[in-house]
Amino acid sequence: MASKGQSRFRVGISVYFLLLVEVLDVNDNIPEISVTSLVSTVKEDAPIDAMVGMITVADNDAGKNGQVTLNIQGSAPFKVQNSYKNYYALVVNGPLDRERASEYNVTITATDEGTPPLSSTSVITVHISDVNDNAPCFPEPIINVYVKENSQIGAVIHTVSAFDPDVGDNARITYSLLESSKSGPVTSMININSDSGDIHSLQSFNYEEIKTFEFKVQATDSGVPPLSSNVTVNVFILDENDNSPGILAPYSEY
Ligand SMILES: [Ca+2]
Ligand SMILES: [Ca+2]
Ligand SMILES: [Ca+2]
Ligand SMILES: [Ca+2]
């Protein structure tokens, strides 16, 4: 009886184990780069610090393992600026010239401060748009043109050609005549095709009347505002034996 009663009233003892598990962070997250906005093109005359795009970085690790720095690889006229927390701005950091480089592939690297550090890269393509920053250019400052006298009216005596390294309207050239103070009005003698640069004679030149004349051709692009340059054209009329001698030369008197 007694033993039965003892077991009936036995007091259960519970033992509680408090298990404290401290989870230590390991650097198992690579920093992630996201380009949140990017301008479609950057003008080649964009000033320093002009905004190109916005970038965010994310690293889910704690402490140094999640602390990220952003860098641009190699030499590019851009830099990243930390604007707020993990937000960065990609901005212009040097002179641009579409005629030299119309596109950049900017490689951005995000590196955390873990041991060893983890990093990721992202390539951002930046397109540079044209500005009318080049005047049309003639290959030489002076052009000498030789025209036989009695040549056909309307004949092309020369074709001028200027080059403009810009693109589109900024490189679209029209040609016009500029009077030279030396030779007076030349528009009665020649004209120019504004698109092709063909210079046509408007008269049949007579060496006995005119031996040489000079004018300028101006090349103007179609940019806003337009840019222009000019070239001096010297025309030399070449003598042809078109006059029967009125008086016999002395040496032919034999
Ligand atoms: Ca990390
Ligand atoms: Ca340029
Ligand atoms: Ca240009
Ligand atoms: Ca131009």
TrEMBL record:
Keywords assigned: Calcium, Glycoprotein, Membrane, Repeat, Signal, Transmembrane, Transmembrane helix
Signal sequence segment: 1-25
Domain named Cadherin: residues: 34-138, 139-247
One Pfam entry name: Cadherin
SMART domains: CA
Molecular function per GO: calcium ion binding
UniProt key word Amino-acid biosynthesis: no
GO BP: anatomical structure morphogenesis; homophilic cell adhesion via plasma membrane adhesion molecules
Principal location: membrane
GO CC, one annotated term: plasma membrane
Subcellular location(s) per record: Membrane
Membrane topology, as annotated: Single-pass membrane protein
PANTHER family: CADHERIN-87A (PTHR24028), CADHERIN-RELATED NEURONAL RECEPTOR VARIABLE 10-RELATED (PTHR24028:SF32)
Annotated protein name in UniProt: Cadherin domain-containing protein
